[in-house]
Amino acid sequence: MTTIADRSTAELADLRAQARAAYDAFKARGLKLDMTRGKPAPEQLDLATGMLALPGNGDYTTAAGEDARNYGGQQGLPELRALFSHLIDAPADQIVVGGNSSLALMHDTIVWALLKGVPGSERPWSKEEEPVFLCPVPGYDRHFALCEEFGIRMIPVPMTGQGPDMDVVEAFVANPAVKGMWCVPKYANPSGEIFSDETVRRLAAMKTGAPDFRLFWDNAYAVHHLTPDRHPVRDILAACAEAGHPDRPFLYASTSKITLAGAGLAVFAGSPENTRWFLARSAKQTIGPDKLNQLRHVRFLRDAAGLQAHMDAHRALIAPKFAAVQEALERHLAGTGAARWTRPEGGYFITVEARAGTATEVVRLAKEAGIALTPAGATSPYGRDPQDSVLRLAPTFPSLGDVTKAAEGIALCILLASLEAEQGVRARNA
Ligand code: PMP
């Protein structure tokens, strides 16, 4: 196909008129579609309905013979930590089970770091002139919101397809003000990238200016595959220990997109030293977590095979939605040069890189046509995408029918915005 840039001005005018007519026809359908947030669909939550009857009347005794109804058990049930070691890739005795939200654990660890420092800190991070985090871009908007909330300056780092650009990372971490870095190592939100072995090795081995630098290793999509391939990522705890930096990573995961997004379980893991530090802080916060929910998860998921089978059921529900988006983008945009997009093998998002300068316009066009999209810029620190090109599509929550319709509309918006931008450039140059 001839790209938009290679079209004659007459062809361009024709294409634009066709795209405008297709867009107007779509808009006239008066649809109301939402592709904004990576939430599980009701059918995915239904997969865990059996949990609501667990652990069941009279079932409240843990493997160690303790009463799960009472206070205590601060680190989490050992049988659950053994199960979660498959999820978070850490030994069970270095795992702590928290409440339902891993984001809350990230929040708390950052607040504790700011107020008290972490193992290896000379002083609390808030006493530094201006703590800085490296932020691979595109990234997760709520990570960036946490940094903004606490006055942590963010430095964007480009992604390469194998994880963050390590030459850039190594140059920035030499600065002692850089205290942390966000990492979503597998099926990253939103690029779907998987950190390569070499990326993990370099993150573990790099020299940091700050002795108390931390990788915030948010493995939110560790078992969330869209294909039969499970794409193991190199063990960050082991890699850091081997490189002589055992305390470098803070690990996070949750069952929000495994069991129930509003009633799952979140986990933290780290070196023995980091785990002791975490437990010393959380002991001031609570006299013990919800162990009935922990027991419920053990009874329901049972073991690594049970977890895997459950994730296969999720995949059967959501893989067709991702395929529907790919099909519409391919049909309308392939060869036009109007956009590039990811083909993730797991996770919850597709990232579209539209023509520079058009992402805001695509979101506006989509809104007018009844499709809610994540605001342009949301995947960059401070909400600023200097290229105005990145769009994050979240196909899991709407029904397959709605995703198919929304994808059609979005592809039309991207095409129309690109054609109009090209016409604008030519008119200015004429
Ligand atoms: N981390 C990432 C990368 C996410 O995409 C999400 C959810 N969209 C979360 C964390 C939130 O996790 P939780 O539900 O455990 O707070």
TrEMBL record:
Gene3D superfamilies referenced in this protein's UniProt entry, alphabetically: Aspartate Aminotransferase, domain 1, Type I PLP-dependent aspartate aminotransferase-like (Major domain)
Keyword annotations: DNA-binding
CDD domains: AAT_like
Xref: InterPro entries: AspAT_Ic, PyrdxlP-dep_Trfase, PyrdxlP-dep_Trfase_major, PyrdxlP-dep_Trfase_small
UniProt GO molecular function: DNA binding
Superkingdom of the source species: Bacteria
Pfam families, per the entry: Asp_aminotransf (PF12897)
Protein name according to UniProt: DNA-binding transcriptional MocR family regulator
Organism, as annotated: Methylobacterium goesingense
